[in-house]
Design goal:
The complex is a heterodimer.
Chain A lengths: L1 E3 H13 L3 E2 H8 L3 H13 L3 E13 L1 H6 L5 H11 L3 E3 L11 H14 L2 E4 L2 E4 L1 H6 L5 H8 L6 E2 H6 L4 H8 L6 E13 L1 H8 L3 E3 L1 E2 L4 H5 L7 E2 L18 H15 L3 E2 L5 E3 H4 L20 E3 L8 H12 L15 H5 L1 E3 L4 H10 L6 E10 L11 E10 L5 H14 L5 E6 L4 E11 L4 E11 L1 H4 L8 E7 H9 L4 H5 L3 H6 L5
Parallel strand pairs in A: 1-9, 10-11, 12-16
Antiparallel strand pairs in A: 2-8, 3-7, 3-8, 4-6, 5-6, 13-15, 16-17, 17-21, 18-19, 19-20, 20-21
Helix pairs in contact in A: 1-3, 2-3, 5-6, 8-10, 13-20
Chain B lengths: L2 E5 H8 L12 H7 L3 E13 L5 E4 L23 E13 L10 H12 L10 E10 L12 E8 L5 H17 L7 E7 L7 E7 L22 H7 L1 H6 L9 E5 L5 E4 L3 E2 L12 E7 L2 H18 L4 E9 L2 E5 L5 E6 H8 L5 H10 L3 E4 L5 E6 L9 H12 L19 H15 L3 E2 L5 E2 L1 H4 L13 E2 L9 E2 L4 H10 L7 E12 L7 E12 L5 H14 L5 E4 L5 E10 L5 E8 L1 H6 L6 E7 H5 L6
Parallel strand pairs in B: 5-8, 5-13, 18-22
Antiparallel strand pairs in B: 1-4, 2-3, 2-4, 6-12, 6-13, 7-12, 8-9, 9-10, 10-11, 13-14, 15-17, 16-17, 19-21, 22-23, 23-27, 24-25, 25-26, 26-27
The chains are: A alpha+beta, B alpha+beta.
Chain lengths: 509, 619
């Protein structure tokens, strides 16, 4: 018969001891962890090799008032001292004049003087009793207990009894005084070897090693068969580790791209440094429009000149601005400046890319294009604004493009983005007509959130590009979507990320 | 976009005038939203009155009391007794876009809602009385040095004003200054008590800065010291100071005077105190001056029609504008005619509509409609207050709004198309996947940078091919970024207090001047990684770079190089087999670490993904 090594050791120890032993004593004798010994004892008991008896006992230590009583006598003892010195009686109000007690403490001591029978109150006078007189040089059980608990000792009541302290008498006195003692009920487990245990040892049972780590050696020489693999507390927390991760904002961009590809869109790009022509003029933005002010747009000093596209296109845009050209529009009725169109800016919207795509678009066939990218506005930095932010723009070129198909496309797009509930309301945007604004219902906020603009490009925008079909267009700001999605209060967290945020933000939402 | 406080009781009263079934107050915000206005909130505001000029302010609790009067410039901190309290008002706060200046006030907004609800549809004709007053325009106002050539005017008779209507008048004036006038530059509006004026021959002249004196709005009328020259007003009056920039380089200023020579105003700066509109004013004179004829006409049209909407009893009287022998009568409220193709309108909205149904939609938006050719084309008469209609498509939007976006059936275009990614994005996704697998965290840092961040802290000279911003807003963003490492280092710097090691990477665009391109610059996709930790060294980043290039299936050779940002002898250049240098890696120089306040060694690599993988150009 083989026993796990710890159980074998416990059994041997108990046999040698020939008496009941407390679990902690066994643990210290065997120099083994108490929890392991306790587990071994339980298993031995279940097999009938030991028996375990539980005894309840009080564990005592001093409370704050008890600590104080170490250095100064109990008030009733101080009072009988005063009474003895004053010839056996003293006017109650006079007692504070003869000791360190104040009148309140003297008042409180009356209860204990009475209980111990040390003094009696006779109207306004205290009179020392015989018991009191004989107690003056003695030590009461409670006082002895306090002394025994000096030095922050935590003591078992049975041990104190062994030291000759009348614990029950002491407790009778002290347990009524708040703050003197802290008493906890504990259980001692006494383990004794049974006859069955002795027989087991007599029959030649041996111990078997238990190991923590399953080693290559144990595996290669088959030694694992002769050892126990120690059990673990599998509920304990492990050390935190973090996988490498893509950035949360990247994951939103990835999702947007996936949605567009699933809907059959072609990805497009356009340069950060963009001519005013593509950024503004091609979108029928008049040259005196406030958005073109130095106040709102970053102009580029180097390079300081952009080339314009082919002359036919430029001419068509000029005419549209000035008189409406062939588009059926009144135009803006001003003189269009080619010089202003050459001026480079940092693109103010990704619509610059979609208008370039329209100019490239091969007329007559349907087209779907999208872009995700940074755009630049001359914004003063705060928690919601940075000079760089990120936009998504999508367009659909199709003869059947209409407000109804725009709403259908937006519904499909935002459903795939995880927003099944959207609301499309009219709005007024400069280069779309009709225009619509999208509101998303955010379940997490129980509210509608305004998310982006959309519409059908104005003929003044599409016709000069040679596109005769209507063009659906919509865009949204990704930074805002990211702030809402990840519930970050400041854009700073996205672009100047803290390690805890990068590490803790889960990959999946 | 300004926030416009729309007084709810006034608006609702106007909307429901003569309505068979009045619109309940709680349905108002929804209707307004369906008409394309963004309702920010419903709020209670406290109303303050400027006792000096009569301007009324709606202020939310957060805004608090006004500090000085935006109309006359009175500083309420200095003279608090001039700020009266008119109690609380219920307003709908609307976030308005500039294009629809005809709905900024309860008159115009009410008119639109009434049409939309069918309470009153079709084109509204506003009767006009023939002119009695003539304004003679000085030709010098077309000169470069005294330029404000355009003026249109109107008279409004039989007006009875309340605090509410005065407030509405002043607010509309300010909103139009913003929306149409570009803060008074293109157009500015003046309204005066006509009964303080005399004669029928008014003059609009260019006057020298010291050519006359008058008491500007807000100054004590009886004090001789209040009589200022135009030049002094620009220096001494709060509003004069605020708008002096509009008179820059001018040697004579526009002045409007009545038949007796009394000054009405110095456009676009300030009115005179003596012609001020008060609660007791019964007849008003109104002018709009500016740099664009179209704009001044539009502003005046909105002004008079909105007033007429709110105060139906008033009589609008025209004014003759005389330029030499030329005569122009204003306001001119003749509608503009525009032809709308019915089939195109129906297809654009995406519904079936015949001419009759479409015509009804137009009428609900306040237009006049007649059939041109038996149902194919409609002739739409667009009211003069609508300054936004440039093309039939603008009218089609009106019809769509009247139809109701919420009543459309969402559909998809019937088109089979094939999704197509940009190669540079696909390869960047590969790069990210590899670095994530190597235990790195991605960061995305700002794409604008500065010479200090990109070069100074890195012990190198600024590169000539950097893109420079002409009008930077801060010294930290003066150029497009040319490298990714500064962003990584800044991220490490703000994360000093957290557990090491830290491994970060970024894959992103940088931008360089390139004269061969159309715009003179181009983006390039870079990848960079940084490792910080007690025992991080060259070997660590070398291992990462090797794994990275290997997984990208790119061949790369490593050669010793010199680079001031790195420890000498612990830096290498990465080359493609054809010799093209694609990047650099190594252990950063201690001085660079110091510049970022870092106390542990950092090893990095940075390379051009586009060069390494020879990615096809972007489209």
């Amino acid at each position: 018969m083989q026993l796990p090594q710890v159980q074998y050791d416990v059994l041997r120890y108990l046999q040698t001891l020939g008496d009941a032993a407390r679990v902690p004593d066994v643990a210290s004798a065997l120099k083994t962890d108490q929890a392991q010994i306790a587990a071994a004892c339980t298993m031995l008991q279940e097999a009938g090799y030991v028996k375990i008896e539980e005894t309840r006992f009080d564990e005592l230590r001093l409370g704050p008032d008890g600590q104080a009583a170490l250095t100064q006598p109990l008030p009733e003892r101080a009072v009988i001292g005063v009474l003895a010195a004053q010839g056996g009686t003293c006017i109650l109000t006079d007692v504070p004049n003869h000791c360190d007690l104040n009148s309140g403490e003297v008042g409180q001591s009356l209860r204990w003087l009475g209980q111990r029978g040390w003094a009696k109150k006779d109207r306004d006078t205290l009179v020392l009793s015989d018991a009191g007189r004989s107690a003056i040089d003695g030590t009461e059980p409670d006082e002895a207990l306090i002394k025994a608990l000096a030095g922050d000792r935590v003591a078992r009541a049975p041990d104190l009894e062994k030291e000759g302290i009348d614990v029950s008498a002491a407790l009778a006195l002290l347990s009524k005084r708040k703050g003197m003692l802290v008493i906890k009920e504990r259980t001692d487990r006494f383990v004794t070897i049974t006859d069955k245990g002795r027989q087991l040892l007599a029959s030649g049972a041996t111990g078997r090693d238990s190991v923590t780590q399953l080693t290559p050696e144990l595996l290669s020489d088959g030694g694992w068969r002769n050892v126990d693999l120690r059990t673990y507390d599998v509920t304990l927390a492990a050390k935190k580790i973090y996988p490498g991760k893509t950035h949360p904002f990247q994951r939103i961009q990835d999702q947007v791209r996936r949605v567009f590809f699933e809907m059959g869109f072609e990805e497009i790009t356009s340069p950060w440094v963009e001519s005013s022509f593509w950024d503004f003029d091609a979108l029928f933005q008049p040259q005196d429009h406030p958005a073109r002010d130095m106040q709102d747009t970053f102009y580029v000093a180097k390079p300081n000149h952009c080339r314009l596209p082919d002359e036919k296109l430029v001419e068509s845009v000029r005419q549209t601005h000035e008189t409406g050209g062939d588009t059926g529009s009144t135009g803006w009725q001003y003189r269009w400046s080619r010089d202003l169109a050459h001026k480079p800016v940092l693109r103010t919207h990704t619509t610059a890319a979609t208008i370039r795509a329209l100019a490239r678009h091969n007329g007559g066939k349907p087209g779907k294009y999208f872009i995700i990218g940074p755009v630049f506005r001359r914004e003063t930095v705060d928690y919601k604004h940075l000079p760089v932010f990120h936009q998504v723009d999508g367009i659909v070129v199709h003869p059947k493009a209409s407000l109804a198909t725009l709403i259908g496309t937006l519904t499909a797009f935002y459903r795939k983005m995880g927003f099944p509930k959207i609301r499309v309301v009219p709005s007024f945007f400069p280069y779309t007509e009709p225009s619509a604004e999208v509101h998303l219902y955010m379940e997490s906020r129980k509210n509608w959130v305004e998310m982006g603009g959309s519409g059908i490009f104005r003929p003044e925008v599409t016709l000069p590009m040679g596109v005769t079909d209507r063009v659906l267009a919509w865009g949204l700001g990704l930074d805002r979507l990211a702030m809402l999605t990840y519930d970050v209060a400041s854009l700073g967290e996205l672009f100047f990320s803290s390690m805890p945020w990068l590490r803790e933000t889960p990959v999946c939402r | 976009m300004p926030i416009i406080d729309m007084p709810i009781p006034m608006l609702l009263a106007h909307v429901n005038k003569g309505a068979a079934k009045p619109l309940p107050e709680d349905e108002l915000p929804e209707k307004v939203m369906r008409l394309g206005c963004e309702v920010e909130e419903l709020a209670e505001t406290q109303q303050f009155l400027c006792n000096v000029c009569g301007k009324i302010y709606d202020r939310t609790e957060a805004q608090g009391m006004p500090l000085h009067c935006s109309a006359c410039g009175t500083d309420f901190r200095a003279v608090p007794e001039q700020l009266g309290d008119l109690g609380m008002a219920k307003v709908m706060r609307l976030d308005m876009l500039a294009v629809r200046s005809d709905i900024f006030d309860p008159g115009g907004m009410g008119r639109m809602v009434r049409g939309y609800l069918g309470i009153q549809s079709g084109l509204i004709e506003y009767p006009l009385s023939p002119p009695k007053i003539t304004v003679k325009v000085d030709p010098h106002l077309s000169d470069e040095t005294s330029r404000r050539p355009h003026i249109v005017c109107a008279v409004m008779r039989n007006v009875s004003l309340t605090h509410d209507t005065i407030k509405m008048l002043m607010n509309l004036q300010e909103d139009l200054h913003w929306a149409l006038g570009r803060d008074r530059k293109l157009a500015s509006i003046g309204v005066y008590d006509l009964d303080t004026l005399s004669g029928y021959e008014f003059r609009y002249d260019a006057v020298k800065p010291d050519g006359l004196r008058f008491v500007p709005l807000g100054f004590p009328p009886d004090d001789d010291a209040s009589r200022l020259t135009p030049g002094e007003i620009l220096e001494k009056h709060k509003t004069g100071q605020a708008y002096a920039h509009l008179m820059k380089d001018m040697t004579a200023y526009p002045i409007l005077r009545d038949g007796a020579g009394t000054v009405l105003s110095m456009p676009p700066i300030i009115n005179s105190e003596s012609t001020r509109v008060t609660m007791t004013s019964r007849n008003l004179f109104c002018d709009v001056t500016g740099l664009s004829q179209r704009t001044v006409e539009r502003a005046l049209n909105v002004m008079v029609t909105s007033m007429k909407e709110l105060l139906p009893e008033i009589e609008i009287e025209q004014v003759t504008i005389a330029r030499g022998d030329e005569r122009e009568i204003t306001p001119d409220l003749t509608p503009t005619e525009m032809r709308v193709d019915v089939a195109n309108a129906a297809d654009t909205i995406g519904v079936k509509l015949d001419a009759k149904a479409l015509g009804e939609l137009f009428e609900r938006m306040g237009h006049g409609v007649s059939d041109a050719d038996g149902g194919k084309t409609l002739i739409v008469r667009v009211p003069a207050y609508r300054s936004d209609v440039m093309h039939p498509v603008d009218l089609i939007e009106d019809a769509a709004i009247a139809y109701g976006y919420e009543n459309l059936t969402p559909e998809l275009v019937p088109a089979f198309t094939v999704g197509d990614p940009q190669p540079v994005e696909e390869r960047s996704a590969d790069a990210r996947q590899i670095l994530v697998g190597l235990g790195f965290h991605q960061v995305m840092t700002l794409v604008l940078s500065s010479e200090t961040a990109a070069f100074g802290k890195w012990r190198i000279e600024p590169a000539d091919n950097r893109v420079l911003i002409e009008n930077p807003i801060s010294s930290e963003q003066t150029m497009c970024r040319v490298n990714l490492l500064p962003g990584l280092m800044e991220t490490l710097a703000i994360n000093k207090q957290y557990d090491l090691p830290q491994y970060l990477f970024e894959v992103g665009d940088c931008c360089f001047v390139d004269e061969t391109t159309e715009t003179g610059a181009r983006e390039e996709r870079l990848a960079a990684a940084a490792m910080i930790g007690t025992h991080i060294g060259y070997a660590d980043i070398r291992a990462v770079a090797d794994a990275f290039t290997h997984e990208l299936h790119a061949e790369c050779t490593v050669q010793p190089t010199e680079h001031a940002s790195f420890i000498p002898g612990r830096v290498a250049a990465l080359h493609r087999p054809d010799g093209t240098r694609v990047g650099v890696m190594g252990e950063l120089h201690p001085e660079v670490l110091e510049n970022y306040g870092l106390k542990h060694p950092v090893s990095v690599f940075e390379l051009s993904l586009e060069k390494l993988l020879e990615i096809p150009p972007r489209m």
